[in-house]
Amino acid sequence: MNRKIRFALLLAAVVGGVPSAPAAGKPNIVVILTDDQGWGDLSLNGNKNLSTPNIDSLARAGTRFERFFVCPVCSPTRAELLTGRYHPRGGVYSTSAGGERLDLDESTIADSFQAAGYATAAFGKWHNGMQYPYHPNGRGFDEFYGFCSGHWGDYFSPPLEHNGRIVKGNGFCINDFTDKAIAFIETAHRSRKPFFAYLPYNTPHSPMQVPDRWWNAFKNKSLAMRHRDWKKPGLRPNQRENLPHVRCALAMCENIDWNVGRLLKTLDRLGIADNTIVVFFHDNGPNGVRWNGGMKGRKGSTDEGGVRSPLLVRWPKQIPAGSTVTPIAAAIDLLPTLADCAGIPVTGKKPLDGRSLKPLLLGKTGFWKDRPIFSHWRGRVSVRTQQFRLDHRGQLFDMTIDPGQTTNISQKHPQLARQLRDKVATWKRDVLAKLGRANRPFTVGHPDAEWTQLPARDARPHGGIRHSNRFPNCAYLVNWTSRDDKITWPVEVAADGRFEITLQYAVPGADVGASIELRFNNSRLKTTITTPHEVPPRGREHDRVPRRESYVKDFRDLKMGVIELSRGRGDLELRATDIPGKQVLEFRLLMLRRVPGNNRSRRQKPRTPSS
Q1: What is the pLDDT at residue 435?
Q2: If you ran DSSP here, which 8-state letter would residue 239 be given?
Q3: What is the pLDDT of residues 454-478, one digit of tens each?
């Protein structure tokens, strides 16, 4: 069966049926979030190096926020969108190795819309947990197509997942994600069911890959707009513009714009544009040195350039066309805002840090109380008010007259600087103090999920084993040469069960024959590698500029057999018992599939993993 037809049938199963009464007449929601695209990477904001007419049209037909703030990096921003709360409250402290996971006692924006009768789906980069119930399907999304990691190694027909099961992507991933989102929207519309569609695109995050159509327009292009310090003498290499990188990032942004245009045309074609709220924003500052409106900072920085994002919202006949919102706002505001616009309750019981922006969107001119907005990454905290920013060093800047943060005015305004430092201290005590202290093993075998992935990025290599790259998100494990070496995952089995184990590996013919054993507490499963799989790394052929991340491989599946696991905690361990060659194998992934028909797991209440 054709993949597109099969996907459409699965979507029909998800969104089919008559919508429940609470959803009747509610607006549809489309949220588009891009990855590492800076505030300045839109023609709307004055960048003459590129053209983004479809994204710009959202501002012309709706509203734009002058000062909207996100986090300095990916997973924290996603967590704040999902929860309406600052990311440390949800346990998100890193971008890999489990630190990107959102605590299970947090309720998400998709939970609220799903409970209100919406069809919910996400297409793209999740980056808030892989193993169910951290997985999107456990966080309120009926449908998920994409990848759960922080970055991916190849953007052309890569291995992705559909509701937990590994599938092969179809062409350039951003185009593919958009195709799947369009299919979902069409199916929901036919079912007369309102939808919440989340598109967390993964570009222009590296590796820098884009189809020829967009690259050819940029590869030799002169750039009229340059970074504010591009002529400054004495810059280190990482402080200078890498022009091929800049050109590819801009090409990727124009590809995003093309796909946004396809989505908007779909809404028009279906006649639902007037009843659909479209939201567009970015997850952090630019992933490189390039023009960004003269602001200080880029990705990873808590300065203005690292955390300022566009926010464009279109809702025809509701939001005044071409309007501008001047009060500061942040990602924490999106959940309460969209729930308020849809007229649905927020399901979570925890207090939100964000507030509904609906009055600002609709042009209501009532009193709007100023408030501080905090930005955090790796212990660095800055705070923004409507007029001022206190940076993580305690320096004060008047952003209305000094948007580039060039003049510290803390000595001129000592009382204000002291007040803001006190606010930062309070925020650190109340919000930041417990971040990263929770013991959260990786969840395995939840009875509500058929599949559990345990990738190399989440593994702990021991002995000589190491990741193929220091950025683990798409890396695999290499240099497994000794029986003293092992690979472990701290896991929590949610319910007793029998699980079919598939291992993804590569090994040259000269080294085939190693025997390996999977262990968990008293359970054992052994197998021997009998088939060589020598395959070169892939991804380089699509790179427009050299990458820092790992290349990837087309690994081979090995069905190890079935293992019985008992509920509880422990280390899931992979060891070699015999190594006839120079190495055991290169390792990418363990996939566990719950074998149906296990009576014990049906009788047993699943263990709720600790957050």
Answers
A1: 81
A2: G
A3: 999 999 999 999 999 999 899 999 9
- Residue 398 CB contacts under 8 Å (≥ 6 apart), including other chains: 387, 388, 407, 409
Shortest CA distance to 99 belongs to which of 378, 447, 427?
378
Tokens of 46: 């004055």
Q: Which distant-in-sequence residues (6+ apart) come within 8 Å of 367 by Cβ?
A: none
Give the CATH superfamily of 3-361.
Alkaline Phosphatase, subunit A (3.40.720.10)
Assess contact for 149 and 127: CB atoms under 8 A. Answer: yes
Cβ count within 10 A of residue 413 = 14
Nearest to 174, CA basis, from 156, 161, 159, 188: 156
Q: CA 510, 515, 519, 525 torsion: positive or negative?
A: positive
**Contacts for 458-466: CB closer than 8 Å, 24+ residues apart:** 458/97, 458/98, 458/130, 458/489, 459/487, 459/488, 459/489, 459/587, 460/487, 460/488, 460/489, 460/490, 461/485, 461/487, 462/486, 462/487, 462/488
Count CB atoms within 10 A of the CB of residue 2: 7
E-state strands within 321-372: 323-325, 329-330
- How far apart are the C-alpha atoms of 590 and 200, rounded to whole Å? 25
> Exposed/middle/buried for 300, CB within 10 Å: 0-12, 13-18, 19+?
middle
- The percentage of the chain sitting over the pLDDT mark of 90, rounded to a whole number, equals 88
How many whole angstroms separate alpha carbon 131 and alpha carbon 127?
Answer: 11
Domain ranges of the chain: 3-361, 373-432, 442-603
- Counting Cβ atoms within 10 Å, is residue 147 exposed (0-12), middle (13-18) or buried (19+)? buried
Classified as helix, coil or strand, 313 is: strand
Give the pLDDT score at 22: 43
Q: Tell the residue number behind the tokens 């456990």, with chain if given.
A: 138
The pLDDT assigned to 465 comes to 98
Say if residues 494 and 506 touch (Cβ distance below 8 Å). Answer: no
Q: Which residues contact 14 (CB under 8 A, 6 or more apart)?
A: 119, 121, 142, 143, 187
Element spanning 388, H or E: strand 388-390
**What superfamily would CATH give domain 442-603?**
Galactose-binding domain-like (2.60.120.260)
For residue 133, say if its preceding peptide bond is cis, omega within 30 degrees of 0: yes
First to last CA, the chain: 41
Measure Cα distances from 258 to 178, 282, 510 in Å: 10, 16, 48
pTM over 0.90: yes
Tokens describing residue 132: 């169910």
Answer for the pair 516, 561: CB distance below 8 angstroms, yes or no: no
**Sequence-ordered list of residues with C-beta below 8 angstroms from that of 387, at least 6 positions apart, any chain:** 398, 399, 400
- Collapsed DSSP state (helix, strand, coil) of residue 462: strand
